[in-house]
C-alpha cells in the first residue's frame, strides 16, 4: 500500500513538472520600429480662417456651453480679445 502511494506521488510530481513547463508565456515587447500614422491633410489658410470664424460664431451663440462668458470672447470687428 505504501509502495503504491509513493509511486502515485512520484507520478503526480512528474506530471506537475511536465504540465508546469508547458504553461503559456506572455511577452510584452516594444516594436522595433516606431508606430507611424500617415495622415495626409492639406488645409489652406482660407479654410482655417473660415473654420475659425464658424467656430467663433457657434461659441458666441452658446458661450456657457463652452465654459466662457461673452466678455471673454474676442471682438469680431477688431479680432482682438477684450
Automatic annotation (TrEMBL):
This is YnbE-like lipoprotein. It comes from Nitrococcus mobilis Nb-231. The lineage of its organism: Bacteria, Pseudomonadati, Pseudomonadota, Gammaproteobacteria, Chromatiales.
Amino acid at each position: 500500500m505504501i509502495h503504491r502511494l509513493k509511486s502515485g506521488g512520484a507520478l503526480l510530481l512528474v506530471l506537475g513538472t511536465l504540465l508546469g513547463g508547458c504553461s503559456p508565456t506572455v511577452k510584452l515587447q516594444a516594436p522595433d520600429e516606431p508606430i507611424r500614422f500617415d495622415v495626409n491633410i492639406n488645409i489652406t489658410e482660407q479654410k482655417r480662417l473660415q473654420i475659425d470664424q464658424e467656430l467663433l460664431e457657434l461659441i458666441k451663440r452658446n458661450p456657457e456651453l463652452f465654459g466662457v462668458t461673452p466678455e471673454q470672447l474676442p471682438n469680431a470687428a477688431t479680432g482682438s480679445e477684450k
